[in-house]
Amino acid sequence: MLRLMRRMSLVVIALTWPASLAAQAETPEDVARQYFVAMRSEDAAALARVTHPAALAELRDLLAPLFASTLPEADEFRQRLLGVRTVPEARALSDTTVFANFIRALGGQLPIFTEALRSSSMEPVGHVMEGSDTAHVVYRVTIPLEGITLERLAVLSLGRQGETWRALLSGDYSELARVLRETLGG
After folding, report:
1. Which segments of the chain have a pLDDT < 70?
2. pTM of the model as a whole
3. Which of 8, 11, 125, 180 has the greatest number of beta carbons closer than 10 A?
4. What domains can be seen in the chain, in order of their start residue?
């Protein structure tokens, strides 16, 4: 019986060990690469999966007028930015779906940006910790564009989520929120 229990324990370890090792081994740079691959391939759902839940909720909060306004022009904004027309439809969307639909909408509005992104490359340089729950990944992005190559350093901020990292919102979305509030009220 002892021998059987030992064998069963070894089987359980063998089945679970690689998955737990992979989760622990995921560095901020690994997640930054996943984020960039999702952006480059225009995979909004994958981008949402590597985005921190707090960032998904933050975007929803910034888009709050879309979830409340009954003005006629709000229907068009909701359709363009979220893929739905009515307040009840918008409220029914998960934070992940709101984020993915919003990212798809932005990509559709900026075709030159998405084209440049498709041909770009990203190489992490390293990361800087801010406390124990935030990592800022510094990366070099190279974009060949119409016969010239643009190269710059950029930063992707990540928040800890359990044993891994997830992307935080970057840039200043407060201007977007301000425009929506002025246009739709709220």
Report:
1. 1-25, 186
2. 0.79
3. 180
4. 27-184 (3.10.450.50)
